Amino acid sequence: MTRILVALDGSDPSEKALSFVLDHHADAELTVLTVLDPAAFVQGSADVIPPTIDSWRDEAEAEARATLDAAVDRAEAVGVDLDTDLVYGSPARAIVRYADDHDVDQIVVGCHGRDGVSRILLGSVAETVVRRSSVPVTVVR
User: Fold this and answer.
1) CATH of residue 13
2) Mean pLDDT throughout 109-114?
3) What is the pTM of this model?
């Protein structure tokens, strides 16, 4: 059976990637992965950063788990089983590493999850995954 990894960060493009997989690859072994990037903690505005890394982590994990739970609900609604996982790290590197470590056959990502200045400064996660992955990558717009 084909193993497909879907990167989900709660953005519209990543939600479209999940929809694509549910519509076109429902017969595959599906895993939805969310990556929490600790570097995001130091890149935000001082007005919106929680007072400690612990509170950031707790809030980020709660939001990520809610996103993953919603993905499970969406899949169950169309009769598809999927696994979920949550890891920490640089998103592109973590996605590629996860795929390598879990014998994934294909990665599906949204075209981008970041906007504006952060995208220019940090580059595109999808582009980096395409360049570094040893397995085929589908980028969904």
Assistant:
1) 3.40.50.620
2) 75
3) 0.86
